[in-house]
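Please, structure for the following, as tokens.
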Amino acid sequence: MAITPHLFEAFLKCPTRCWLRATGEPPSGNTYAEWVQTENESYRIEAAKRLMANTPTAECDPPPGSSRREEAHYSAENMKIAKWRLALDMPIRIELRSSRGDEAQTSPPEISQSLLTSAATIETCLHAVERIPSAGRGRLAQFVPIRFIYRNKLTKDDKLLLAFDAFVLSEMLGRTVSLGKIIRGDDHTTLKVKTPALAGEVRKRLGKITALLASPTPPDLVLNRHCAECEFQARCRKIALEKDDLSLLAGMSAKERERHRSKGIFTVTQLSYTFRPRRRPRRLRDKREKYHHSLKALAIRAQKIHIVGSPELKIEGTPVYLDVEGLPDRDFYYLIGVRIGHGDSAVQHSLWADTVADEGKIWREFLALLETVEQPVLIHYGSYETTFLKVMKERHGGIEDDSVMSKAIGSAINLISVMFGQIYFPTNSNSLKEIAGKLGFSWSGLNPSGAQTIVWRQKWERSQDTQSKQNLVTYNLEDCQALERVERVINAIRLTGKQPEDREGNPEIVNADDLKPDYPYRFGNKAFAISELEEINKAARWNYQRDRIYIRTDKVVRRAVHGTKAKPSRSLSINKESTWNGPLACPGCGRIGRKMGTASRILYDLRFSKRGIRTWVTRHDYAEHHCGHCHSMYGKPEVFCGKSMYGRNVVCTVAYMLIELCMPQRSISSGLNRMFGLGIHEREVHRLKGSASRFYELTRQKILARMVKGGLIHADETSIIIKRKRAYVWVFASLHEVVYFYAESREGAILDMSLNGFAGVLISDFYAVYDSVACEQQKCLIHLMRDLNDAVLDHPYDEDLRRIMTSFASLLTSIVLTIDRRGLKRHFLRKHLTDVGKFYRQLSRTACQSEAALKLKERFEKNRDKLFTFLNHDGVPWNNNNAEHAIKAFARLRRVIEGLSTPKGIEEYLILLSVCQTCKYMGVDFLDFLRSGEKDIHAFAESWRRRKRPSPTIPPTSLPPDAIPPSGGQP
């Protein structure tokens, strides 16, 4: 099938439109589309006659009054010897094959392949061609294609159509056509266009059209902004409604549709189930709410109005509803509709301009109307009226700066800006026709639209048809009434969150913040509409049936139920008795206190041996003293600190089970009670964890200080949900240490606080916050490699992208081979700096055409100084695996604590996790370090290595005085 300008023009608007025209689909009817076609033909005939009248008769081809020439008359050979200066309606037919190497390289692979394997036949009839005679010997005559366009304003598509004509003409002549002309508008203005700059785009579109016409299946139907002027509008919209296609949502971009489709979301109904109400962060509460297409889809599915936040609509004065009609192509406003007041008492005015000269008159009449209104508040719908007020004020003036009219125009209310992102009507778009129609308003005309008004106005200008003028005035006044209807509903939503009482047909209003996630199955209490059903549901609960029903019918269940009710007791025999002779002087002020008597306390602890662990209970007898100076009691043994009755080895075991074994606190208390009979409660486990974290806070600070003084730090971050809020955990790691920190946000303040003074190399991913650290940077090449791989998988036919990835992979492969043989030594790695320079020179010479390849190229250029820093240093890795490995350790712990802890509890976990992971990086057993009572991991590691193995038994009383205190103690 031949490609014609008719198909090429359709493809510029929509591939489906091109397919339907090519297959001969009958139009479904569109008055505006039919009018545009008529205007094009009539303007082409008129402009051709005008152009021929300005050209001598002997220089026209065909001459006036003769028949049109055949296609063979305009062959390349005949045109080279032609004598005419102007040719009209020139028919051309060519067979196009992709034979030029440069063009094949600049086209996407699938397009180039289609042009190489199949011929594209092009049939066209150029509106006109101007022949410029040779300027001298050895110079060829020039041919300039001319296209007639009835509109006064041109678009890029109009220039591409002219470039299409120039491309076809150049292919026929076998030489470049470097210039084209467009004659446009009422004044027949001539615009010169340099067509070679658009030739590549034309060839690319031709390749896509060839592939489209060769395919046996039609393209995916997508509604777009050109549908209003398409002859197949009704047909496509009907199919889209049947499919519930995502393109029905007018504000959704093509990229967003593709993103949803990649997730398996193809319909508006499917999209509606993805909305999740989320609390806005505090930093964004003063900013405007973004638009949620999923909430729009939910409003359509539920057929309810959904609101987000509190819409702002403040009307203090008399509402003046404004709607303007004009001809955008001519920047001419000919009808101003004004409705003053509301309800039955409203007064309507229609200000009509017969010609452009009358535009200033109706503007002055509009200003005079505003002067008669007390405190006028202009209300309009959309940006067209906003532009109208600005343009008319500059064009015709007549407004003083401090006048009532100036204030009213300056504070005009655009209802779309009030609605956007906050009010979601159950309509596919936010057009006035759809929203007012959903609210019960109806227009008297059949399917009125802004495009239809252009047809009515042109018809009136040519024939002074009274009916056309009446249609325009009626349509304009009804728009003002519809505007009032929408404004009253929005105002009612703002005031009460409900629809107006006198509008019973309005959809129900729902606050999106009150919505709950629509999960079909979830734990928790369920509300029942009938109280009897709630009682029946209670009778089906597991505990109720087991304690009340099964206990009466099953002996095993009865014994199990009675057995679980027994509380664990702490009936342990005393293993040792000890007498403590405390100091006579007060530890606070140093004065001698008065002896108050003797007391005894029992300490429950664990004792480690070569073959196991056993409970160890010690009773301590001691003398209590009272200081008369500071009024404090002292004399209690040092193994007791606070009100806890558990020893240091119990604290160590709890910390080990929490961090190393990732056990929940409830499981720890249950396990210790079952195995050792300690009678420890879950709350006591929480207190012991806090005691251990306070003791090792200084250890974490020492670890961080040692890392900052070093030459290498890996950094990464991950999220955690706490009390339904998202927070973040940051990790800093070296080859020997790891520290974790908690932060409420992902901002870089914690980097400035933690890494202040660091002068080494920071290894991180491509998160921009890390660039704020004033040190050398090494970006993780594994992250970059994964992103490259995902990009190639998403764009399998992008040769530019694949070429860049192949070159980078080759470079990185040679570097990794050197690292495997020689290690991370600068002496052996510096030789690859030459390869890096070669890679970047080749990258700079690569002319990327696709968006993905351009983004990747920009990413390489932006991070040039941060991708290969490791080549200039000893012992600096090229990836961020150390930090990622530390993140995995936290992720295991996060599965247990996420959603159940608090920021303080998370910080306690992170302190102990920092100690645990640093012990692993140093090759030290975490439990042995805890039991040692040492605070410096490096010092413990040195002493631990000097011994073959740690001491199997460490009695509680033999620990250093600064060892881990029991719950409630101070380090």
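Residues 99-118, 498-504, 950-971 have pLDDT under 50 and may be disordered. The CA atoms of residues 83 and 283 lie 74 Å apart.
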